[in-house]
Amino acid sequence: MLNISTIIGTGSCLPKRIVTNHELAARLDTTDEWIRERSGISQRHIAADDEKTSDLATQAARQALERAGLTGDQLDCIVVATTTPDNSFPATATRVQANLGATKAFAFDVQAVCSGFVYALTVADNFIRLGQVKNALVIGAETMSRLLDWQDRGTCFLFGDGAGAVVLQAQPDSGDKQGILSTHLFSDGRHYDWLYTDHSFGGPQTRGTIHMQGREIFKSAVDKIGQAVEKALDHNNLKASDIDWFVPHQANVRIIKGVCERFSIPQEKMVVTIAEHANTSAASIPLALEKAVSDGRIQKGHLVLIEAMGGGLTWGSALIRW
Ligand code: ACO
């Protein structure tokens, strides 16, 4: 019998320091009003100088493990989705593994930028389905602030730092449609240069900063996300109205509203954290999941659809019966 993955714990971590739009407007040619109107963002959390992606990831993981009633040594697998690893190598996941004392786990990173959490969840879910893993920790963790040119008003307001984690556990698939019901991934490398950092191993060894064709991304986002949502619904013979909660990647509130319009989804069914968190790339979905679970919106038995699009381009969705 194949297994199915259930989510048995969620956790999150946001750096203490908050940078408001007003603070940005004091040093850049921008305004709070412009940023809120164009993106829905009011503030972002920014990591301290000595705070690494693995530190945020470890704190989120500890909370998720505690809520799952597990300790690090019970984990079989750790997958960290990040585009801002502590170092080019080894994987940030191995640092998290050491921090958690997860001596029996194997650990690695997944890089799919803002779609990273959906990709990492898919990989861990497949290990569980195949019976190779019982307990998996999936983390989305980012310090995007380190990739920003703080003088570039066109990009720096969009991003923030943070981490979210979920613990997956294998259950025998008894056919009662619980847990992760489906995952679908897509990418299109022809749009590589719509969103990239200018660090390259063939060039000078700098960290690089983000370059973005914001309008191109914006124009294709609702189509790509729509494709991923449709795949998830069709695969499970469901309609958008059957879904209890949509937990989208938090890139821009106008993209989220566009998806609502396309599928006639009431906005109250969308879990939206962009105002407080900005775009935390791979961390945005697990951060939003943790918030909606903690405040009691997502409850056992609810149907939850997550979706994301990001650099690459990459995009995808997962449908979960909580
Ligand atoms: N403050 C004030 N004015 C600004 C700012 C700013 N912070 N940034 C840009 N402008 C100006 C531009 O210079 C431009 O001025 P001009 O007309 O004189 O040249 C004007 O505002 C309009 O700029 P646009 O880039 O056309 O503005 P747009 O309405 O497209 O909004 C935005 C920009 C918010 C970046 C939008 O394109 C967007 O959200 N795109 C998606 C990008 C995204 O989500 N990236 C995240 C990673 S990918 C992902 O997660 C899906």
TrEMBL record:
<feature type="active site">
    <location>
        <position position="114"/>
    </location>
</feature>
<feature type="active site">
    <location>
        <position position="249"/>
    </location>
</feature>
<keyword id="KW-0808">Transferase</keyword>
<protein>
    <recommendedName>
        <fullName>Beta-ketoacyl-[acyl-carrier-protein] synthase III</fullName>
        <ecNumber>2.3.1.180</ecNumber>
    </recommendedName>
</protein>
<feature type="active site">
    <location>
        <position position="279"/>
    </location>
</feature>
<dbReference type="Pfam" id="PF08541">
    <property type="entry name" value="ACP_syn_III_C"/>
</dbReference>
<dbReference type="GO" id="GO:0006633">
    <property type="term" value="P:fatty acid biosynthetic process"/>
</dbReference>
<keyword id="KW-0443">Lipid metabolism</keyword>
<dbReference type="InterPro" id="IPR016039">
    <property type="entry name" value="Thiolase-like"/>
</dbReference>
<comment type="similarity">
    <text>Belongs to the thiolase-like superfamily. FabH family.</text>
</comment>
<dbReference type="InterPro" id="IPR004655">
    <property type="entry name" value="FabH"/>
</dbReference>
<comment type="function">
    <text>Catalyzes the condensation reaction of fatty acid synthesis by the addition to an acyl acceptor of two carbons from malonyl-ACP. Catalyzes the first condensation reaction which initiates fatty acid synthesis and may therefore play a role in governing the total rate of fatty acid production. Possesses both acetoacetyl-ACP synthase and acetyl transacylase activities. Its substrate specificity determines the biosynthesis of branched-chain and/or straight-chain of fatty acids.</text>
</comment>
<keyword id="KW-0963">Cytoplasm</keyword>
<keyword id="KW-0444">Lipid biosynthesis</keyword>
<keyword id="KW-0012">Acyltransferase</keyword>
<dbReference type="GO" id="GO:0033818">
    <property type="term" value="F:beta-ketoacyl-acyl-carrier-protein synthase III activity"/>
</dbReference>
<feature type="domain" description="Beta-ketoacyl-[acyl-carrier-protein] synthase III C-terminal">
    <location>
        <begin position="233"/>
        <end position="322"/>
    </location>
</feature>
<comment type="subunit">
    <text>Homodimer.</text>
</comment>
<comment type="pathway">
    <text>Lipid metabolism; fatty acid biosynthesis.</text>
</comment>
<keyword id="KW-0276">Fatty acid metabolism</keyword>
<keyword id="KW-0275">Fatty acid biosynthesis</keyword>
<dbReference type="InterPro" id="IPR013751">
    <property type="entry name" value="ACP_syn_III_N"/>
</dbReference>
<feature type="domain" description="Beta-ketoacyl-[acyl-carrier-protein] synthase III N-terminal">
    <location>
        <begin position="108"/>
        <end position="189"/>
    </location>
</feature>
<dbReference type="Pfam" id="PF08545">
    <property type="entry name" value="ACP_syn_III"/>
</dbReference>
<feature type="region of interest" description="ACP-binding">
    <location>
        <begin position="250"/>
        <end position="254"/>
    </location>
</feature>
<dbReference type="InterPro" id="IPR013747">
    <property type="entry name" value="ACP_syn_III_C"/>
</dbReference>
<keyword id="KW-0511">Multifunctional enzyme</keyword>
<dbReference type="GO" id="GO:0004315">
    <property type="term" value="F:3-oxoacyl-[acyl-carrier-protein] synthase activity"/>
</dbReference>
<dbReference type="GO" id="GO:0005737">
    <property type="term" value="C:cytoplasm"/>
</dbReference>
